Amino acid sequence: MKKLVGQVTPEEKNEIQTLFERRNGLNELAKILTADNTDLYEKLVKDMGETGSKFQSWWDRMSQKYHWESVPEGNWEINFDTCEIFLVTLDK
């Protein structure tokens, strides 16, 4: 189930969209990179960790700023076209 719980500014949306695209790109790179190239592998692992932390930090900051509804087994999702935030839960 998806429930509309808020909206962010276009600037805030751009920030998370950049992190989202970077995280996806790093995940794709991780699928083809082997640990044989130690330097590049270590850089990738570090970058994935930093990007993941920034990604989670954005959601934490925005949820505190806008006081979005949440549930333990749910997660938020953004519509990049409309800047709307949805609470996504499994139907029971």
Task: Give a verbal description of the structure.
This protein has 92 residues and is of the alpha+beta class. The protein has one domain. The protein has helices spanning 10-32, 38-66, and strands at residues 2-7, 75-79, 84-88. The longest helix has 29 residues, at 38-66. The radius of gyration is 16 Å and the shape is elongated.
The percent range for helix content is: 55-70%
Tell me the radius of gyration: 16 Å
Tell me the count of domains. Answer: 1
C-alpha end-to-end distance: 9 Å
Mean pLDDT: 95
- Can you write the helix and strand succession as a string? EHHEE
Strand order of the largest sheet: 1-3-2
- For the secondary structure, the number of strands is 3
Short description:
With 92 residues, the chain is α+β, with helices and mostly antiparallel strands. It has helices at 10-32, 38-66, and strands at 2-7, 75-79, 84-88.
Task: Please specify the SSE layout and strand pairing.
Elements: E1 2-7, H1 10-32, H2 38-66, E2 75-79, E3 84-88
Antiparallel strand pairs: 1-3, 2-3
Helix pairs in contact: 1-2
Give me some keywords for this one.
alpha+beta; 3-stranded antiparallel beta sheet; 57% helix; 92 residues; elongated
